[in-house]
Amino acid sequence: MYLTKEVKADIFKKHGGSENNTGSTEGQVALFTHRINHLTTHLKRNHKDYNTERSLVKMVGKRRALLDYLKKKDIEKYRSLIKELGIRK
Question: Count of domains in the chain?
Answer without folding.
Answer: 1
